[in-house]
Structures are given as structure tokens and as C-alpha cells.
Design goal:
CATH topology of the domain at 46-150 and 202-226: Alpha-Beta Plaits
Strand order of the largest sheet: 5-6-2-7-9
CATH class of the domain at 46-150 and 202-226: Alpha Beta
Structural class: alpha+beta
Helix content: 25-40%
Number of strands: 10
Strand content: 25-35%
């Protein structure tokens, strides 16, 4: 019985050794080509977040007086009502407007705190953002800027771009192999290059600022064209060649 077990173990080791040798021989014989493939696509945003910051101010700021003579504070509620009224006049609905944050930011020596609020307005076009920046005349508006861009189909588009990167890698491998009279066979490995994974640049805020000391008829600065959202993908692929 012991002899049979020993022979069985020897046979098992022998078979395993042959299998490893064959695998090593196959690996040595296998010829490969490693290539990278890249793809990118520009996407139009279908949701634009337009952020407006408002802050209480002193009526005397607009009368050319020194800050020591500031006495009449315009409250945040009045500024907010005026702003929302102007937004509604531009066709903005209340369900597009969200209070993002509020707080007491600062105060001048000997004066009350000036309360500020930040309001997000959801838009679907930059034309409306331009219209808002040029039309809003409410005093107390400190800053207006585009702060975020989104597209509801972006996740699906990312997958499409990755597939395009793989196709680009295969096309490159076929071209290079053909130059040596070789043909591409199976895929050995696929690695996504992390530096391109989910690369969606966010917009740099393009702001129009109006301080309380500026005249209310100063007018908004026109927006320049924003770049579209851009998604990129890159892969490293190893193919077997004949």
C-alpha cells in the first residue's frame, strides 16, 4: 500500500512538472505586442449650476459716504426678494432656485454683522446665464458664476469612450503587426490607465462680481463660451501575435 501511494505521488509530481514545462515553453514561444489606445469625446452639458452670492449692505455705500457714516443696513430678506423677483421676470421658476448656504460673514468695526446667502439656480443653457448676468440689478449681489456642469448621459458616454479606446488599441496593434507581416490573435491583458479614468474637468468659475459700492446700473460682464464637458479614456493592451 505504501509503495502504491509513493508511486502515485511520484506520478503526480512528474505530471505537474511536465505541465509547468509546457506552460513555460508556450510562454517563451508566445509573441506579443503591447499598445495603448486612447479616446475622448466632448459632451454638451444639459444642467448648469449658476451660483449667486448676496450680502447685506449699507444704503450709505451708494450715496458716496464714508463707512463711519453708514447707518442704514439693507437686510438680506429684502435683497433676496428683489433678486428672486428679477429671476422670475427672466422666466426662472422657483423649483430651479435653491438656497445653498447662509451665514454671518463679517462686520466692520462698530457695525452689525452683514449676513450673506448663496443661491444656486439650475439652468439648461449658457444663454440664460448670460441673460442673468446682464439683467440682474439687485444691489447686494456680490458674485455670480457658473460653478458646475452636468450631463445625464455622462456615465453611459464614459463606457462608450472606454470601448472606443479598446478599439483604437486593437487597430494600432493590427497596423504595427502588419508592418512585420504578422497577424494579431488573442488579447492577453487589458489595463485601464488611471490618469485618464473618469477624467471630467470641471469648469473654472467665470464670475461677474458686483460690490455694494458699485452703481446698480453698471451692467454684467458678458460670459465667454465655456468648453464642453470632456471625457477621456486610455488603455494598455497586450495582444498575442502569430
Amino acid at each position: 500500500m505504501k509503495l502504491a501511494i509513493s508511486l502515485l505521488m511520484i506520478g503526480s509530481f512528474y505530471t505537474s512538472g511536465i505541465a509547468q514545462e509546457k506552460a513555460q515553453e508556450k510562454q517563451q514561444v508566445m509573441r506579443t505586442i503591447e499598445v495603448t489606445g486612447e479616446s475622448k469625446r466632448s459632451v454638451d452639458p444639459d444642467e448648469i449650476t449658476y451660483t449667486i452670492s448676496i450680502e447685506e449692505y449699507w444704503k450709505e455705500e451708494f450715496e458716496g459716504k464714508k463707512y463711519e457714516d453708514y447707518r442704514t443696513k439693507i437686510d438680506i430678506e429684502g435683497i433676496e426678494r428683489s433678486l428672486i423677483s428679477e429671476l422670475k421676470a427672466l422666466g426662472i421658476e422657483m423649483n430651479q432656485i435653491t438656497l445653498k448656504q447662509a451665514g454671518n460673514n463679517w462686520r466692520q468695526r462698530g457695525k452689525d454683522f452683514l449676513v450673506s446667502k448663496t443661491i444656486d439656480v439650475k439652468l439648461t443653457s449658457f444663454a440664460t446665464a448670460n441673460e442673468i448676468s446682464n439683467a440682474i440689478q439687485t444691489r447686494g449681489v456680490r458674485n455670480m458664476s457658473v460653478t458646475d456642469l452636468k450631463n445625464k448621459d455622462l456615465e453611459s458616454i464614459k463606457l462608450q469612450v472606454k470601448a472606443e479606446a479598446l478599439k483604437a488599441a486593437k487597430a494600432k496593434a493590427v497596423l504595427l503587426a502588419a508592418a512585420l507581416d504578422k497577424k494579431v490573435k488573442d488579447v492577453i491583458t487589458i489595463v485601464e490607465i488611471d490618469q485618464y479614468a473618469n477624467a471630467i474637468p470641471r469648469p473654472q468659475p467665470m464670475a461677474y462680481a458686483r460690490s455694494a459700492s458699485m452703481e446698480s446700473d453698471a451692467g454684467g460682464a458678458a460670459y465667454e463660451n465655456f468648453k464642453k464637458l470632456e471625457t477621456k479614456a486610455a488603455v494598455r493592451v497586450v495582444f498575442e501575435i502569430e
